Structures are given as C-alpha cells and as structure tokens.
Amino acid sequence: VEYDAHAEFRRMGVGVAGGVGQHWRVSEINREFQLCATYPPVLAVPARISDTTLTYAARYRSKARLPVLSYLHPNGASMTRSSQPMVGLKQARSVQDEKLVEAIVATSEPAGMVPRFRNERNNIIIDARPTTNAVVNRAIGAGSENMDHYRQCRKVYLGIDNIHVMRDALNRLADAAVDAADVSATASDLGNAEPAGMMARIQSSRSSWLSHLQNILVGVKTIVEAIDAGHHVLVHCSDGWDRTAQLTSLAQLCLDPYYRTIEGFAVLVEKEWVSFGHQFTLRNGHLGHPDRFTVVRAGRKRVPEHSEDIEDIDRDVGETESADDGAQTGSSIFGRFATRAFRG
Question: What is the reported pLDDT for 112?
C-alpha cells in the first residue's frame, strides 16, 4: 500500500466544503522539512491559522513538533498530536500556540469560531507522562501547558512511564518467562511435580508490565470516549513519538473500522509512526549502536570499538548521509523503518 497523505486527509473530509472538515486545510509549510525535521511534509491544520502563525507556534514546542491533525472523526471531533510545550521555570507562554489550540477546538463550530462566553472545558489535552515527570521537565525549559491560557480545555495526565522504564519492565518480563521455562523443563526431566506456573512467576518478577499496559489502555479509553462524545483531544508526551503514537494509533483502531482492514492498518502505521518520526532504529535495534559492541581480534584484548569508520546512527536529521545510510534506507528488510525521519 502506497501511503498518500492528501488522499487520507480527503477520506477524513479535510477541506471539503460543507463537511465536518470544512474548517481544516492542508499545509505544505514543511515540504522541505525546514519547519520540523521529524514531521511529514504535508500537515492538516485549522483553516484560519496561517503558515506564519504555525512557524511561531512551532518554536514553543519541543523539537518544533507543533499540534497538527492526526484524525478527524465523522462527528467533527479531532485528535491532534504534538510534543511538550517549552514552558520552563519562568512559565513561558506562546500566544500563537494558544491560538492554534483554540482554532482546533473551534473547527467543529458552524462558523469556525468558539462562542465568546462559552466556558465549558469539555475538550482534553492529554499529557501521557506521570505528573512528576512533566513538572521536573520544567527545569530543562520544557514542561506542560498552563491551563489558564487554553480556553475550553482541561488536562489529563495518564501516568505512562518513559521508554527507559518500559525497557526495564520488558527485560524483567522476559527474564521471568525464561526462568519459568527453564524450571519447568528441569522439573519435567527429573519427574518432579510441575512448579509454579509462568503467570505466577511473571507476577512475582515485579516487572509492572501489565500495569504499564493498563495505563496505556486507560488512556486510549479516555481519548475514544471524548472523541465519540464530540470533544477534541490533543495528545502529547515529551517529544511526541513514542507514547503519543501508541495512544493515537490504538484510539484510531477503536474509532474507525477502516484502520482495522489490511490497507487501513498499513496506512495507520505509515501515518502515525513512520511519517511522524518514530525512532525505529533506536527502539528496535536494527543496526545496533557502536557503544554497545566490542570487537575481538586475534592476539588482542577485547576493546570497545570507537573507530571513525563507525557512524553514529543516532545523529541528528540533516547531517551528511554516508554510504552506510543508503544501505539502511534501501534495504528490502528495513525500508522506511531504518531511520527516524520520513523523507517521502
């Protein structure tokens, strides 16, 4: 399936006169990846927000990942995604970012404008992180939205831990499963009674893996119920390419039967993960990382490999590409999943 962003937005009704997406438009401000290196070249944004406003709004979001459309429901409710705002200790704000979020909320209004005296906060800004993590990030100039500046919205923290905690939990889960299998095999060879089952060992491993899954599913339930009720939802975590993609993808699988088809699922992965810059190389370890490997040569000690011939696969987007990079992206095995940025 060849993903076509314009076709997908048309399917949702973006920009269709008289439809639920009449107050949305398609922008190609990121056509050369100059606005945001890890966003797709085609973005859907509120029609009354200019590209100039988008440029200023992007400066307020981590890695310039400003709020853009992820999914438009037939009832007019939208799911948008972004990264965390650059609030900092001084509680910085951005008028352009606030106008962008307000315009997103207004897209379901007949005139595309929020009534001045409406004070309900039915729309949701989802911060996938634990509250403590969001507050601590202020020390590095980031943080979470000050809801005094975002009309018609309320904030919900989901308490989903970061990739490092998740990786540790998965390792503990895998170790518990391997130990359970070894003990079971040993007991069987010795003719002993069957020991405690695998689930019991997993629960005693304190991996918290099932708790992490529960937090994600509770977040998806919150998003689905809000959109089904006609409310808008903005989803973000820190950088907006791990927890955010999980939440938006699972929510769309629940909301739209198209994404539960083979073609639709392929479009969903391409749209939410590949085009929005998920770091497949780092997360999946396709090529590994030079710092995690050692090279053994005959007659020499085991030493870390830091040769200049090894390229750092975690280099920032925009640096000079090497011949090895061409092999990554051209590989029939990895394809688009070998790099972090979508380049059409």
Answer: 73
- Tokens encoding 168: 């540790």
**pLDDT value, residue 133:** 92
Residues 239 and 282: their CA atoms lie apart, in Å, by: 15
Cα separation, 305 vs 203, whole angstroms: 39
Yes or no: say if 128 and 207 are a contact pair by the CB < 8 Å rule: no
CB 290 within 8 A of CB 312: yes
The per-residue pLDDT for 341 is 54
In which residue ranges of the chain is pLDDT below 70?
115-119, 182-199, 201-205, 285-344
The contacts of residue 137 (CB under 8 Å, 6+ apart) are 84, 143, 144, 238
Q: What angle do CA 158, 161, 163 make, to 5 degrees?
A: 135
What contacts 99, CB < 8 A, 6 or more positions away?
Answer: 49, 53, 57
Q: Active site residue: 36, 153, 237, 254, which one? A: 237
d(CA 143, CA 145): 7
Phi/psi region, residue 206 (left: phi>0; alpha: psi -120 to 50; beta: rest), is left
Spatial separation of the C-alpha atoms in residues 244 and 236, rounded to whole Å? 5
Find out whether 80 and 16 touch, Cβ atoms under 8 Å.
no
Q: Which secondary structure element, helix H or strand E, spans residue 153, and what is its range?
A: strand 153-157
Quote the pLDDT of residue 174: 85
Rounded to whole angstroms, the Cα distance separating 237 from 66 reads: 12
Structure tokens at 30: 């990121």
What is the pTM assigned to this prediction? Answer: 0.80
pLDDT at 163: 86
**C-beta atoms surrounding 255 within 10 Å:** 19
Contact 243, 83 (CB under 8 A): no
- Evaluate whether 7 touches 263 at the Cβ level (below 8 Å): no
Residue 195 to residue 13: CA distance in whole angstroms: 57
Q: How many helices (H) and strands (E) does the chain have?
A: 11, 9
Q: What is the pLDDT of residue 205?
A: 67
CB 22 within 8 A of CB 111: no
C-alpha of 37 from chain center: 15
Question: Is there a catalytic annotation at residue 36?
Answer: no
